[in-house]
Amino acid sequence: MGARKNTHKQAEQRRRDTLKQYFDDMRDIIPPMAEKMPSKIDIMRAAYEYVKVLKDAKAEQEAEMQALRDHIKALEKRLGTAETGKPTSAASGSASSTMGDSSASSLGDRTQSPRSELEACRLAPVEEDRDNQPKASDPVHPAAAMET
Questions:
Q1: Distances (CA, A) of 104 to 55, 78, 101
Q2: Above 90 in pLDDT, residue 109?
């Protein structure tokens, strides 16, 4: 009977050690907290808020990416290269007649030709941190959002 109790005690100790290790790891991942030694509930609450901020930032980035894809398609349409890769007769017309009033106004006054603007969109480097982490100067940085 004593051996069974001992085995259970060891299993419970391993479980507590594993749980403690995960809380320590989580505390290291989330943005710094004001408390010197935060409780487990404080760590969980901060982690939950951090995940929400990250999800919101991801959704915002996905919306921006879709807007950029739509912009590229509009530029390709202006050039007449959306499907065939060859300029069409519509591409020789004015930009507002090809794109419509709402698309032309959303693009604003551009000094670049549509072709050079399209190439700039395709060739523009995407700035990323080495570890694929958001930069502190980024306005959607989760740590900055949690402080407000």
A1: 32, 10, 5
A2: no
